[in-house]
Design goal:
Blueprint (H helix, E strand, L loop, with lengths): L1 H24 L13 H17 L12 E9 L2 E9 L10 E7 L4 E5 L4
Antiparallel strand pairs: 1-2, 2-3, 3-4
Length: about 120
């Protein structure tokens, strides 16, 4: 019985570490606490998130070269949020000319869309 218990504990610890390793790969822009993120931090996270959206096929690859146009704090549905805007004047679809990215005040990603809502 002791051997079974020890094996279960070792397995749990091993699988737990693997899960943490996988989560850590994409967690460089995951923040805890209530400290407001600096605009530079949010900008860097927006660039990382934009690259992820391109990689997953959610937005066109042409967005890769588009620089950030604006970052500002706005009043969101649950309080203050960061809004990061990218604009592609050469977009084929004018409805997808502006990419809006929303982050919590602490810097965590909320959503991205082309409507700004």
């Amino acid at each position: 019985m002791k051997k079974f218990l020890m094996a279960a504990i070792v397995a749990t610890i091993s699988f737990g570490n693997i899960g943490m390793t996988w989560a850590a790969k994409e967690s460089s822009c995951h923040f805890h606490g209530n400290k407001e993120a600096a605009p530079e931090t949010v900008s860097n996270c927006a660039m990382q998130r934009k690259a992820t959206l391109i990689e997953k096929g959610k937005i066109a690859e042409s967005w890769q070269t588009i620089p950030q146009e604006k970052i500002a704090q706005i009043d969101g549905k649950k309080g203050k949020e960061w809004l990061v805007i990218f604009r592609d004047p050469d977009a084929k679809d004018t409805a997808k000319e502006t990419l809006y990215m929303f982050f919590t005040l602490t810097g965590n990603f909320i959503a991205a869309n082309f409507t700004g809502k």
